[in-house]
Every structure is written in structure tokens, then in C-alpha cells.
Amino acid sequence: MGDEVAHHYRHPAVPDVDLLRARFVTHRFTRHTHEGYVFGVIDAGVEEFEHAGGVHRAGPGSVVLVNPDVVHGGHAGTPEGWAYQVIYPPVDVVTGVAADLGARPGTPAFPDPVVTDPAAARLLHALHRAGEKGDALAASTLLKATVARLLARHARGFQPRDEPAGMPRAVREARDILHASLVEPPSLDELAAAVGARPFPLLRAFRDTVGLPPHAYLNQVRVREARALLDEGLRPAEAAVRTGFADQAHLTRHFKRTLGVPPGAYRSARTIGRVGARGTEEAS
Fold first, then answer.
1. What is the DSSP letter of 103?
2. How far apart are CA 56 and CA 59, in angstroms?
3. Measured at the alpha carbon of residue 273, what is the angle toward residues 271 and 277, in degrees to the nearest 5?
4. What does the alpha-carbon distance between residue 188 and residue 258 come to, in Å, rounded to a whole number?
């Protein structure tokens, strides 16, 4: 399958949706979450990933569906690795298409993380081709067609977008403290004292409720904030400082483990996308 490559980008016609086309062999995604959905199609090889307490394998032609805020990882399921094409639509894009289809209010949930759907696979491929060619009409049309197909065939019920049911007060307050303390986070003992809990019970409750221990959750929040800063045009070194990473190398390690590309490549793709969008506007 050759060397590892990854291209993470946005098309101006679908500015809120990230796209990833990649081939990985030794790369491993750390356990992480996304605020929106993950829809992908496997082109070659096998991806193996943790999801909702189990391990799943997706081979050529398989479509992968991950709901928002679900902890998952990812790595090669065979020595040859895997190649795939992925879209990351935010919740409002998916719920908007669901509303157009007449669904009741709520956030659609996909119970099966791996499905066989050749039509959906073709739509995902076509959407990526349109994005790479800069075809605005085709890209925006295919995005809605892809989401509509997946909703109609694979969504089952709805999931709440608020806090998990029964989230303990201490976990909720600890999470809020971490969001406000990216640069100088407290130790576990300090965090527990701040919310009126003992360290180990808080660690266990946080992990059981959120899906990640506090330090791993904090790094996820830092990566998301760094992405926002890179989207604004900041350089990776400055984004690292502002989000509490020790240095650019520290940011790069966590960023790539979550998104599949280093922050410099991510920023470059965003810059190209903004230039392309301005050029389109000036020509119209």
C-alpha cells in the first residue's frame, strides 16, 4: 500500500465539514472523541478500532459511522495498514438534513459502527472527488445526499446532546475546571479538593462518565482549542503555548494522534482553503 499519507482539508462549498483522505500503516489514533459525526469508507486494507467497549474491524468497502462524543481509537488491522476517506459533519448539518427528511427533533444516532452500504460508499467517494476538484455545486449536493442516505438506512433513534444522564456533580464541576485551566491545570489531588471529592473516586467517576481520565480529556480539549487557533491562522508554536502544551512537539504528538495529521499540515490546508474561497468570491 506504500507510505503513509494524509490530507485533512475543507472545501469552501461545505465550510463546516472536515474531510480526510489518508493511508496509514503504523499510525495509531489515541482514544478520543469528536464533537460531530465521523462517516468514512475504507478503500483498502483493514482498520481496527475501539468503540463503545468493543473492538471492530472495517475492511474494503465498509462504511464506518461514529456518533458525536463517543470515545474511539484506530489502528491498522493488518500489517499492510488501511486507506480510507472520511467526512466529519457537525451535529447541526446532520440534524438539518434529518429535519428535511421529516425526522422528529433530536440528534440522530447510528447504533452500528461498521455497515455495508455500497451506495453510501460511492457517495462518500464522489463527495471527496468533488471537494478535491473544487466543484462547489457537486460537493454541497453530495454532502446532503450522503448524509440523507446514511440517515435513511442506518440511523436508529436519537441521542441527547446534553450532559450524560446522571453525570455526578463532582465530574461536571471537574470538567468545567479543566476547560478553564488549559495552561495551568490542577493536579488530581487539587482537582478533587476543588470539587469536594477524594482523588481516586473522582478519577473513577470521571472515566466512567466521560469515557476518558481527566488528563486525557484535558488533552482533547487542548487539541480542539488549538484547532480553533490554527483555523484563525496562528502558527503551531503559538497555538501550543496558548493551549497549555509544553511546546510545538508536544502539540504535534497529541494533534496527530487525534486528527491524523500534524498541526502544520492542518494549518496549511486551512490557509489554502481560505485563499481558494477568496479567489472564487473575487471571480464571481
1. P
2. 10
3. 120
4. 23
Q: Please tell me the distance from the alpha carbon of residue 10 to that of residue 277, in angstroms, as a whole number.
A: 10
- Using alpha carbons, select from 100, 103, 238, 214 the residue that is nearest to residue 159: 103
Domain boundaries, the chain: 5-159, 169-268
Tell me how many helices (H) and strands (E) the chain has: 10, 12
User: From CA 28, how far away is CA 222, in angstroms rounded?
Assistant: 19
Listed residue (71, 74, 8) closest to 227, CA to CA = 8
Q: How many CB atoms lie within 10 A of CB 218?
A: 20
Residue 203: pLDDT above 70?
yes
SS3 label, residue 45: strand
The CATH code of domain 169-268 reads 1.10.10.60
Alpha helix (H) ranges present in 106-179? Answer: 118-133, 136-154, 169-179
Which pTM was predicted?
0.88
In CATH terms, is domain 5-159 a member of 3.40.1410.10? Answer: no
Q: Where are the beta strands (DSSP E) in 46-103?
A: 47-51, 54-58, 62-66, 72-76, 82-88
Q: Is the pLDDT of residue 282 over 50?
A: no
Q: How confident is the model at residue 18 (pLDDT cuts 50, 70, 90)?
A: very high
User: Which residue in 147, 167, 165, 51 sits closest to 99, CA to CA?
Assistant: 147
The model's confidence at residue 260, banded by pLDDT at 50, 70 and 90, is very high
If residue 269 lies in a helix (H) or strand (E), which one and from where to where? helix 263-283
By the 10 Å C-beta count (0-12 exposed, 13-18 middle, 19+ buried), 106 is classed as: middle
In sequence order, what DSSP letters do the residues of 194-235 get, joined into one string?
HTT--HHHHHHHHHHHHSS-HHHHHHHHHHHHHHHHHHTT--
3-state secondary structure of 124: helix
